[in-house]
Amino acid sequence: MSISWRVITFLLLLILLQLETSRAIWFPWYFHRYGFQPHSSRHSGAVNVAPDGGPGKGSKSNKGGSATCPPGYELKGSKSHSASGRLCDDNPVVMQLARLYVVSPERIVLLLAQPLLAESCDEIADVLEHIRGATTNCILTEDNIYGKLTNGLRYYKSEVCDGGSESSGNRKRCASLNNAHNCLKELRTDMIECEAPPDWYELRNVTKVCQTFNNVLDCYYTRGAMLCGLEAAKQLRSFAADSMKRAMLQSCEVSKRLPKVNDPMLISATT
Ligand SMILES: *[C@@H]1O[C@H](CO)[C@@H](O)[C@H](O)[C@H]1NC(C)=O
Fold it and tell me: What keyword terms does UniProt attach to this protein (predicted)?
């Protein structure tokens, strides 16, 4: 009961933040503003149709009418897209990600808190299979956030669902995360509270993005340590860093310094 209220409060807060910044990608709002026009075709400068939702709303920011990329989506340079093959319609990708509520890098990490990991992994595999189907004969641009989120999700599948890749030496981490799952489930609300404002990873200021990135990691670590112990917290932070990095446009250094947390397991063992 209280958890669902906290989630609802969080969602309302997200919506308020959305109104404030008016550039977050929170799917329903995104559709409302931009309609179902493929993100990729906005990039190629194709004919732009006013979104079905409300032509009055977004038009102020669409100077000139032909540039309808939301902030953070501007085409870098003026590379010719015709040479690089057909651009994907990314709406099928968005729809698949929405099945898992993967709307941000943090939401990939949050999949660790799903009640049943195996069931969740089946759905993740299915989502990735559908995305593969929708993107086999075309390409997503490098700076397509849904392409990035897909990369992060693939990483989740290989590192959590498929036992961790042999080469990356992450088998131990995978085993740790699976072992800690009973506790990580309980960490769900805390993990949601650790999330940054919806559009944080789209900001242009790398310093700020990477600061936020590390704040989120430290929050996972601190909350994780208090509830699940230091070892689980370390693995959670490490996995969150690796998966979120893959889901972001900017590349960030992970801070070497861990926040100081007294191991609650040790405290309870000695008292
Ligand atoms: C980027 O963000 C940092 C930290 O918030 C700030 O100190 C800096 O002035 C910002 N740089 C630019 C170019 O806005």
Answer: Signal
